[in-house]
Amino acid sequence: MRQLVLVFVGGGLGSILRFAIGKWLNSPDTGIPYGTFLANILGSLCIGFILGWAIKNNQLNSGAVLLLATGFCGGFTTFSTFAYENHMLLKTGDLFNFALYTIASLVLGFAAVFGGMALSRLV
């Protein structure tokens, strides 16, 4: 039960932050949903750092990893919103922004995870 509460609390906080960033940065005028993009990249960096730190230092217990990585990062990032926004870009025929958003999200998302892991080794 404790594990479920940790994931629930972390996920709720991550979801609230993602919602706030989306409200701040997502605009139909720009074509690209920058809020979701930023949340996914920051969340990738965050999970890379958290798990890298946990592996390197063995200081994060399983509860902290559940709260931060599974809960917070899971709630903060969102593949379903990413997929829906790409659907909308395709539906409107905006192939350029579809390709840019998809490729940049994947490349920078992976780079952010690796960067977070590398950063955790430095601290």
Secondary-structure blueprint:
Blueprint: H1 2-25, H2 34-57, H3 62-76, H4 79-91, H5 95-122
Helix pairs in contact: 1-2, 1-3, 2-3, 2-5, 4-5
Head-to-tail CA distance between termini: 33 Å
- Structural classification: mainly alpha
Radius of gyration: 16 Å
Stretches where pLDDT is under 50 for at least 5 consecutive residues are: none
What kind of oligomer do you see?
Answer: single chain
- Quote the average pLDDT: 93
Q: How many strand units?
A: 0
Structure annotation, total helices = 5
Topology as a string of helices (H) and strands (E): HHHHH
- Shape summary: globular
Structure notes:
The protein is mostly helical and 123 residues long. 85% of the residues lie in helices and 0% in strands. It has one domain. The chain starts with a helix and ends with a helix. The mean pLDDT is 93.
Can I get a quick summary?
This protein is mostly helical and 123 residues long. Helix content is 85%, strand content 0%.
Keywords:
123 residues, 85% helix, 0% strand, mainly alpha
